[in-house]
Design goal:
The chain has 142 residues and is mostly helical. The protein has one domain: Up-down Bundle (Ferritin). Helix content is 80%, strand content 0%. The chain contains five helices and no strands. Helix 1 runs parallel beside helix 5 and helix 2 runs antiparallel to helix 5. The longest helix is centred in the first third of the chain and has 27 residues. The radius of gyration is 15 Å and the shape is elongated. 31% of the residues are buried.
Length: 142
Amino acid sequence: MTPEINLLQHIHQGSVMGIDSIRHMISLSDDSAFTSALTSQLREYEDVKAEAASLLTRAGQTPQGISVTAKLMSDMTSSLKSMTDRSASRLAEIMVQGSTMGTTNLTKQLNAYHGHDRSVTSLAQKLLKTEEKNIEEMKKFL
């Protein structure tokens, strides 16, 4: 697998994880302002996912999602963490933790990337900026 394909798959999987996590948090939230913020974030992740999928398809690759196990673990973890407190503050805290993990993982992937395709690095930077922006936005609800 080329460095570009590897990073694109990671971007695609990271955006899928973000989409799934946000949808799950929306289902737990009863705060309209928080839900609105999440809905805006959802669109950003969907844009990154679509762009990664397009680049992968053009390269003759099939975009890979996250495993069923990873999705179930993520949903279970956020459900357990919010079991006794489903306030916007608690849900925002969970989102900050998830986005921080996403930022860390993507930064590692970018540092390990030795390819030269600017469209791939640009998309990775877009996802990284999205994660960072989302962390700042969620802080408003803490």
